[in-house]
Amino acid sequence: MAARKTAIWGGVAAVGLGTYYLYNAGGSPKVAEKQFEHDAAKITSKVRGELPGKEKEAKTQAKVYTEQAGQNIDSAIDDVKLTTSKVDAKLEGYRANAEKKLDEYRKEAGKDLSSAVDKFDKTVEQKAAQSKSWIGSWFGGK
């Protein structure tokens, strides 16, 4: 019974320790693992008081910094991609709006041109009719 309780409390302690490192690493399991390795090397170095432990501690700290730097770079790249996609979306919106306006202006200009051509045709027909009657009156026509 005592061994079972010890195992349960040992498991609870391990979960708590894992949660602590994961929280301090900002949710990154790789950084948490490197930080745990660093702390383990540091404790080993203190307990043994040996120089090789210091070397391992320095190496694991370098790994922690490298992993954190990699995570920061990945985060910066994600931010740049997000910003770029937002800019692309805005530009696409502006392009679509400009295309819509251009199409509206083209249709309006087409209507104005058709109206002007119709007016010109009507005026020409009226003047032609007047000229015909004027010329016809010279020669005795109606």
UniProtKB/TrEMBL annotation:
Residue spans crossing the bilayer: 6-23
Key words of the record: Membrane, Transmembrane, Transmembrane helix
Name of the featured protein: Calcofluor white hypersensitive protein
Provenance organism: Lepidopterella palustris CBS 459.81
Lineage of the organism: Eukaryota, Fungi, Dikarya, Ascomycota, Pezizomycotina
